[in-house]
Every structure is written in structure tokens, then in C-alpha cells.
């Protein structure tokens, strides 16, 4: 019994150690309140080694809150997918921005 417990503990520890390397956290929100129209932002001149992330409306739990655009350090081989709201039936679905290949 002791050997089985040790093997199980070792297997769980190995799985826990590998999980962060393969997982990715994403935020999704579904609400009934449509986001306001995007605000007009003046995009600054391009910066070498950076990507412009445009402003977006986020949900605070009570209301939409505007987050201004900002610069992200470029990740070679990836492109930035900006946060987005999409209608799904009578609800609005929010997907957080993320890097993709």
C-alpha cells in the first residue's frame, strides 16, 4: 500500500509540474448588456519591437469600463488578437486578447 501511495503522489506531482507549461489562462464573459461603440483613439507612430493593442470595453461586473490602447512587446512568430465582444443569441460574449501563432 505504501508503494502505491508513493507512486500516486509522484504521478500527481509530475502532472502538477507539467501543467503550467502547457496551459493558458483566458477570460470569457457572457452578459446581456451590449458594449458601447468603441472610442476613437489616435494610434501613435509605430515603435520597433512593439505591437499596438487597441482600446476596448471590459466588463467590471456592473458596467462596461473603457481600457485605453497600449503598446505590447512584440512576440516573434505570434500575432495579437485584440479583446472582442460578439453577439451570441440574446447575450454578448467577451473574449480576452491573446497571442496566437
Topology:
Elements: H1 2-22, E1 28-31, E2 50-53, E3 56-59, E4 64-67, E5 70-73, E6 79-81, E7 84-88, E8 91-95, E9 98-100
Antiparallel strand pairs: 1-8, 2-5, 3-4, 6-9, 7-8
Give me the Rg, rounded. 20 Å
Number of helices: 1
Given as residue ranges, the uncertain stretches (5+ residues, pLDDT < 50) are: 17-22
Gap between N and C termini, in Å?
46 Å
Number of domains: 1
| Structural class computed from helices and strand pairing | alpha+beta
* Overall body shape: globular
Q: Estimate percent helicity.
A: 10-25%
Structure description:
The chain has 101 residues and is an alpha+beta fold. It has one domain (27-100). It is 21% helix and 36% strand. The chain has 1 helix and 9 strands; from the N terminus they run αβββββββββ. It has one helix at 2-22; strands spanning 28-31, 50-53, 56-59, 64-67, 70-73, 79-81, 84-88, 91-95, 98-100. The chain has a 3-stranded antiparallel beta sheet with strand order 1-8-7, with no helix packed on it. It has a two-stranded antiparallel sheet with strand order 2-5. A two-stranded antiparallel sheet has the order 3-4. The protein is globular. The termini are far apart. The relative contact order is 0.21.
Short synopsis of the structure:
This protein is an alpha+beta fold. It has one helix at 2-22; strands spanning 28-31, 50-53, 56-59, 64-67, 70-73, 79-81, 84-88, 91-95, 98-100. Strands 1-8-7 form a three-stranded antiparallel β-sheet, with no helix packed on it. Strands 2-5 form a two-stranded antiparallel ribbon.
